[in-house]
Amino acid sequence: MGFWTLIEGLLLFANALAILNEDRFLAPRGWTLAEIQGGRRNTLKGQIIGLIHACHFLRLPLILFNIIIIVVKLFSG
Asked: How far does the signal peptide extend, from start to end residue (predicted)?
């Protein structure tokens, strides 16, 4: 496994987190940002919820990074 494969895997993981719908998928399971507003931000659940919301917030850079990866893969094979 090379560095390029690792980058592609992380990009796929970030894409998967970015498409999770908060109302239909996360809220019924108690994984909303409102759940960690207290002092529970340092728990594992709080850190994962923060990561999901960071991926939601950074959708435009994620789209641009996807485009760059696609173009590089087209030219490099």
From this structure: 1-18
